[in-house]
Amino acid sequence: MTSIPTPVTGLLGVRLPVIQAGMSWASSSSALPLAVTRAGGLGVVAAGPMRLDDLARVLDEMAAGTDDPWGVNMPLYRAGADDVIDLLLERRPPVLIASQGGPRRYLERFHDVGTVCLHVVAGVEHARKAADAGVDGLVVVGGEAGGHPPPAMVATQVLVRAVVSAVEGLPVVASGGVADGAGLAAMLALGAGAAQFGTRFLATEEATVHPEYKEAVLAAGVEDTRTVGHGLGLIRAVENDFTVRMQRLEESAAELGVRRKEFQSASLKDAALHGRVREGKVEAGQSAGLIDAVLPATAVVERIVAEYRTALTRLPLPVATEVRPW
Fold first, then answer.
1. Which of 28, 60, 153, 193 could bridge across to 6 with cysteines, CB 3.0–4.6 Å?
2. Backbone angles phi, psi at 266, to 5 degrees
3. Which residues are CB-contacts of 240 (< 8 A; sequence separation ≥ 6)?
């Protein structure tokens, strides 16, 4: 079986440095995370939008469906976060990927039950703080990412290098703008030990979003996403009627209350579950422009590995040099 050993695969106990992002409605069932995990990567359940009983059922399905490690993404700002944490501590997922809050809130308790804890960061300062708190690794999100990119919009390539240098020795996962094996090779070259793929796994058969949502992602080019919601919870989404209205308000310096009302008039749920892709928030990254087909998740993982190998063949081989005196 193919393996690409790195510090992150060793930490997580997986064969491949391919992590499926926990993407709200797209991975709020066991279908996508199980498929990625069985293919050798790390499948991740999105706990963010789930009710407790639904989350408990999916966690049980994950535990019954594979003996390999898998993860749960937990946004710490969600309503009822403490109840979700209690449930996760009960079920003991192999890996926790937490975001939108400080790691000291959860770290000791999850370490006590044997869960590996990665923390999502979008800047060097937060990376250092998370490292000092004792996290097992970091997920570093750059400006190309879909969903919630960092407000400073620093590109993944730059941010990963900065974080790797700042927290030397701590395993790092690179996220944002990566959709294929060449991107994986690039992130490993930068010093990351794995890449997190979000938008690429949106366009899979197992992703539990509406077909219209997947088609909107496929139709988008690399220049067709927009960042809106500045000061309100920045998102990157495929351009549509909603993003056009938001951009006009932001460019005209409309009052915060006006912008908030418009921002809250659209939802990710409307687009992801109901297919309202003109008016909803079709969250996706710039890498949407690198995706050409909806595939089974297993095929996506296999393609990433094949592309990674091809990317390596394009690199020049090391050349031995002999130092001679002038």
1. 193
2. -110, 155
3. 216, 277, 278, 279, 280, 282
User: What residues contact 52, with CB distance under 8 A and at least 6 apart?
Assistant: 80, 83, 84, 87
pLDDT tens digit string along 38-84?
Answer: 999 999 999 999 999 999 999 999 999 999 999 999 999 999 999 99
Closest to 194 (Cα-Cα) out of 2, 1, 11:
11
Sign of the alpha-carbon torsion through 148, 151, 155, 156: negative
How many angstroms separate the CA atoms of 178 and 309, rounded? Answer: 16
Output the six-digit token pair for 274.
């109901």
Burial 188-211 (b: 16+ CB within 10 A, else e): bebebbbbbbbbbbbbbebbbbbe
Q: Which residue type occupies 319?
A: V
pTM greater than 0.85 = yes
Alpha helices in the chain (DSSP H): 7-12, 31-38, 52-65, 81-91, 107-112, 124-133, 156-166, 181-189, 199-202, 211-219, 241-251, 256-265, 268-274, 297-313
**pLDDT tens profile 209-229:** 999 999 999 999 999 999 999
How many C-beta neighbours within 10 Å does residue 101 have? 16
Measured in whole angstroms, the distance separating CA 186 from the mean position of its chain's CA atoms is 17
